[in-house]
Amino acid sequence: GAGVSQSPSNKVTEKGKDVELRCDPISGHTALYWYRQSLGQGLEFLIYFQGNSAPDKSGLPSDRFSAERTGGSVSTLTIQRTQQEDSAVYLCASSYKRGGVYEQFFGPGTRLTVL
Amino acid sequence: AQSVTQLDSQVPVFEEAPVELRCNYSSSVSVYLFWYVQYPNQGLQLLLKYLSGSTLVESINGFEAEFNKSQTSFHLRKPSVHISDTAEYFCAVSDHDSGGSNYKLTFGKGTLLTVNP
Q: Rounded distance, CA A65 to CA A62, Å?
């Protein structure tokens, strides 16, 4: 079946602009994660959604970052007033319970470049 | 809090040579352990995982990793590498006792394995 998809694959924006990144998880996966992969910080957890529960936002680096998940499926990560340090690859993963633990499947990522 | 240390940022080897990519972790609770691989210009793929039971786990393409609780390590090994194994490898942990279902991953910085002919 189809894997996790993300759009756009590449995004170039100017400092100060807002951007929206989209994630389409695997159908039926109840959990969804966002991570960021940057040269300086490696791979970092940003936010987690599970069903209708309140999301775990503990990894969001600032209040310029927000995310939502509509209808328990598609998720959008929004970065307001982008800064150059926001340049990174943003990865989405969806997961389901297998063997007692939720196994995560990653999308190809969105490469964000802030000029 | 958890942390993962991958001791080598780059490992160059010749084709058909053995390789070991080292991973150590720190956690105050029990953890699940994972190795992910990222081929050039591709996304992350799960290579293998340790959840419980046998401490030696294997992947379908010849990699294996052994969980050593006393040394808090989960080193990845392959007895004979191929050029196609060239990729970046990430070790990751998640909390075994999340109390729910949030198994967010904490990653190491990655090890770039380059296999030369």
A: 6
Interface of A with B in 33-72 (CB under 8 A): 33, 35, 42-45, 48, 50, 56, 59
Q: Tell me the sheet residues that pair with B108.
A: none
pLDDT of residue B42: 84
Angstrom distances, CA of residue B110 to CA of A34, A80, B4, B79: 18, 29, 10, 20
For A70, phi and psi rounded to 5 degrees? -95, 130
Q: Facing residues of A89 across strands?
A: A37, A111
Give the residue from chain B lying closest to A95, CA to CA: B103
User: Cis ω on the peptide bond leading into residue B12 (within 30° of 0)?
Assistant: no
B103/A108 touch (CB, cutoff 8 Å), yes or no:
no
List pLDDT tens digits, range A50-71.
888 889 999 999 999 999 998 8
B40 contact partners, CB below 8 Å, separation of at least 6: B86, B87
C-beta neighbour count of B54 within 10 angstroms: 9
A78, A65 contact by CB (below 8 A): yes
